[in-house]
Amino acid sequence: LCLLVQDAYGMFSEVQLQSLNSADDTEQYSRRWEGKFCCLAGMKILQRTTRGRALGLFSLIDSLWPPVVPVKVPGQSQDCEMMTTDLPPPSFCYILAAQSGEVHVEVDEEEQISNLYQPPAVRGLKDILQIHACNERCSFWARVLYLKPQTKLNVPVNQREICLFVTDCTLQGPAHVAPKAVAVCVTTSCALSRDITEALSTASPLLFFKDALWGNGEIICVERTVLLLQKPLLCSAAGADLSEPTGPVRLDELDSATQANSICALRGTVVGVNESTAFSWPTCDRCGNGKLELCPQDRRSMYCNQCSQAVTSPVMKMQLEVFLRCPSRSQKCPGLFVLINMLLSLQSYEVQSVLGKEVGLLNCYVHSATSHPNCVALEEIVLL
Q: Residue limits of the DUF4503 domain (predicted)?
């Protein structure tokens, strides 16, 4: 558990308090302490760090600078104050820790919010994507559509980054806005609470991303980024649309501008099949159960345990790689050649029955995209 504190002179310190059993307590401390006056006692200085040593820490400090009220000037009388516009941004920050390993923090939780406190400035994703600065902190409220874990085999599962594809009202508006969904990389240094991981595994949650890092066209959740299921009580919207997206989510349709490591919608015509990777299995034509058994009375028929009935007209599911020819909105590119790993429902498992089949709209993850030739490798996905 770390606190970022600022005193009446505008000086920042990061206070390292204790190791938490889980990240769940972070939200609890945040709601009770953030913005409140505190008294630190028995602290020792671990380090006096600078911008060159702690870029992530100073990107957070810069988002809180300049102070919203005049601050006191060291070496002058307590009544003498200087306007915040005349102050240069901090060049160093102290890293503090409790000297005896015990917490020596007194917070007046009944006290009103300090006038030095600056709540997170919440913005829409459309506005964030238009920021030209690098390593800038941003906070936003978005719905998670799809989760893509890192697949490097030499990295332990609990140390893998995950990629969340998110959207909000500013990207889902009626006007054409590209993209309709953006990727957010969650690094291993960003602690996720148990509530967050459970929500991501079962639903399409609305999450508040506090102090994520924007730069080089990417949103990254790093150390000091906090993910919450609820919007903080203390936040400044500054005109941003924080309403929840309504209606079905729309993705950008695949075209020549689609980039790798994105998600899109796809429609096209099957022009080829990779038969070496194809496999199929029968499913119940009533409930879709894919684990059929042989009927006890007639071993030539199949039986569905979920329906408790014999299956006389099974639907064949086929997992295979197909080649699609897709239309493109670009005049320079009359069509795209697509390789996609997809799941088809067929009345026959003959591969020839797939050729010429019109497919779409499918939700897909883009593995790779090349312009010469116009070839895209996709994977059919199911949104949360």
A: 6-383
Looking at the fold, whether 147 and 60 belong to one and the same domain comes out as no
Question: For residue 208, what is the domain's CATH number?
Answer: 2.40.50.140
Instruction: Let me know if residue 152 belongs to a domain.
Output: yes
Question: Helix, strand, coil shares of the chain as percentages rounded to 5?
Answer: 10, 40, 50
CA 62 to mean position of chain CA atoms = 23
Residue-wise pLDDT for 309-350, tens only, equals 888 888 877 777 888 888 765 555 556 778 777 666 555 556
Q: How many of the other CB atoms lie within 10 Å of CB of 129?
A: 17
One domain, residues 94 and 134: no
> Does residue 209 form part of some domain?
yes
Pair 60, 137: CB distance under 8 Å: yes
The C-alpha angle with vertex 51 and arms to 164 and 5, in degrees rounded to 5, equals: 75
Task: Read off the pLDDT of residues 240-262 as tens digits, 9 standing for 90 and up.
Answer: 666 777 778 899 988 878 889 99
Helices (H), 63-183: 125-129
Q: Which domain holds residue 48?
A: 2-73+84-107
What gap in Å lies between CA 178 and CA 320, rounded to an integer?
30
Cα four-point dihedral sign 274, 277, 278, 283: negative
What's the CA gap between 79 and 74, in Å, rounded?
A: 11
Quote the number of domains for the chain.
3
User: 134: which residues sit within 8 A by CB, 6+ positions away?
Assistant: 215, 216
Domain assignment present for 252: no
Task: Kindly state whether residues 266 and 212 are assigned to the same domain.
Answer: no
Q: The tokens of 58 are what?
A: 């100073």
Retrieve residue 285's tokens: 């034509």
Q: H helices within the chain, ranges in order?
A: 24-33, 55-62, 125-129, 194-202
Q: Could you give the count of Cα atoms lying within 13 Å of 245 in the half-sphere of its Cβ?
A: 26
* Centroid of chain to Cα 202: 15
Instruction: Please name the amino acid found at residue 67.
Output: P
**Residue 290 falls inside a structural domain:** yes
Residues 314 and 360 in one domain: yes
Is the pTM here over 0.90, yes or no? no
Strand pairing category for 182-186 and 218-221: parallel
Q: How far apart, in whole angstroms, are the C-alpha atoms of residue 316 and residue 348?
A: 6
Q: Put residue 308 in one of left, alpha, beta given phi > 0 → left and psi -120 to 50 → alpha.
A: left
